[in-house]
Amino acid sequence: MTATNIPHVPTVRSRSASPVPAVPAAGETAFRTRADEVYAQLKRDVADFILVPGDRFTENEISERLGVSRTPVRQALFRLQQEGFVEVLFRSGWRVLPFDFDQFEQLYDLRMVLETTAVHRLCEADRRVDRSLLEALADIWLVPAAQRSSDTAQVAQWDEAFHCSLVAAAGNAEMARVHGDVTERIRIIRRLDFTQQPRIDATYDEHAKILKAVRSNRGDQAAMLLRAHIETSQAEVRKITLHQVHLARHAGKTAPR
């Protein structure tokens, strides 16, 4: 069977279409299995719009594209099925599931609680805060407008890092772990938010205000700004259509690598 919506995926030249490495990259744990690598790759494919809702594919197609056997592919797909990314079709391969917008709403609500709690903690004098994380964020977001990046993929990654670093800097490892899981599950939606330049400009402005409030230990103001920032992104999620997803896929295929 051939994929109905992704006939040209094997020719896509990006980091997400590269063969799965046999040896873990620097910084990765040595005990990661081949199935772990395939799982991570397929999640990147979803986040990078190589696989989008409605796409159908077979285990053989994934095996050939990634240069691995079917066994780790099947193991990875079953794991993704449990997480609600794909479903198995009776005698017809697999399909990427449509977006569950009700679930995204709930995840954004949880994200709001975690991040606003974190910034309050960052502004409490008796808390042990990782200031190095905050300073690293300042190097990215507190720059003159002329030095801002217009690379949508880069800004999307920095945006994730901004919010994750705020939570991590607050010093609660369990809070950071839960927040990391939420971040991963809403990644594709957040990246769609960075396909338009006005949203990139707004993100720079809003992040700068939040960071300045945190660095000045103004907890209530930081939480208020952060809440408004997340609510704006949440509102954009409600406007997303499948057409936008396919436009993002096309832009990814035609953009210079």
What's the CATH first level of the largest domain?
Mainly Alpha
Report the CATH architecture of the largest domain: Up-down Bundle
Give the mean pLDDT.
83
Helix content: 55-70%
Note the beta-strand portion.
Answer: under 5%
Ranges with pLDDT <50 over ≥5 residues? 1-30
CATH topology of the largest domain: the name is Four Helix Bundle (Hemerythrin (Met), subunit A)
Structure write-up:
By secondary structure, the chain is mainly alpha-helical. It folds into two domains: 65 residues, Arc Repressor Mutant, subunit A (Orthogonal Bundle); 147 residues, GntR ligand-binding domain-like (Four Helix Bundle (Hemerythrin (Met), subunit A)), CATH 1.20.120.530. It contains eleven helices and three strands; from the N terminus they run αβααββαααααααα. Strands 1-3-2 form a three-stranded antiparallel sheet. Strand 2 and strand 3 form a beta hairpin. The longest helix is centred in the middle third of the chain and has 22 residues. It starts with 33 loop residues before the first helix and ends with a helix. 30% of the residues are buried.
